[in-house]
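Bumping my old thread because nobody answered last time. Still need a sequence for this structure:
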């Protein structure tokens, strides 16, 4: 499906009832390294209110789920949405990079709940609110050793690099030889108001 703009039809009579059930869907696109599989979508429209009972899918060995509602969809369009992402492999985002470019590896999980009013980017930007948490397990910055880069930048000062290397613990000297930067797990709460 391709759509640049899908306008809502303004209907004064809000007695419309519509149920949508989409099971075992499959989405493949050239921009996606892995197809989106097992798409299940269940929604219900009644009296101008859209209830997204569930949206679930598997993509890139991860699980994405969402639910929510849009109240008064034909007028005010006040939305509430909950998103859950489990075990997303960050390296799946680096599909079009040259092999030597830096990129992140790690397993991302997230829970987000929020809402806003309107359907345009302008209206949502002024009304969006929510909270959530991002967690990245085993994060690694591939193809970039930050410690080595920092030391290389200050190596223009004569003798400084040698003195720093003499004072670094053995564990840090070993890290200088690695091509990647291993990081601690990341646990990041977010709040938008």
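Sorry it took so long. Here it is:
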């Amino acid at each position: 499906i391709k759509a640049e703009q899908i306008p809502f039809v303004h209907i004064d009579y809000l007695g419309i009832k519509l149920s949508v059930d989409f099971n075992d869907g499959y989405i493949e696109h050239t921009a996606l390294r892995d197809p989106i599989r097992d798409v299940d979508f269940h929604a219900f429209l009644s009296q101008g209110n859209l209830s997204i009972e569930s949206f679930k899918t598997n993509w890139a060995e991860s699980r994405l789920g969402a639910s929510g509602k849009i109240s008064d969809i034909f007028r005010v369009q006040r939305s509430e949405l909950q998103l859950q992402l489990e075990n997303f492999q960050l390296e799946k985002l680096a599909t079009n990079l040259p092999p030597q470019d830096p990129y992140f590896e790690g397993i991302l999980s997230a829970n987000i709940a929020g809402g806003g009013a309107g359907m345009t980017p302008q209206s949502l930007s002024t009304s969006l609110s929510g909270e959530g948490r991002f967690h990245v397990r085993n994060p690694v910055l591939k193809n970039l050793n930050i410690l080595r880069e920092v030391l290389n930048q200050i190596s223009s000062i004569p003798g400084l690099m040698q003195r720093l290397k003499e004072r670094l613990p053995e564990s840090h000297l070993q890290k200088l030889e690695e091509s990647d930067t291993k990081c601690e797990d990341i646990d990041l709460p977010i709040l938008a108001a």
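DSSP finds four helices and nine strands in the chain. Let me know if any region looks off to you.
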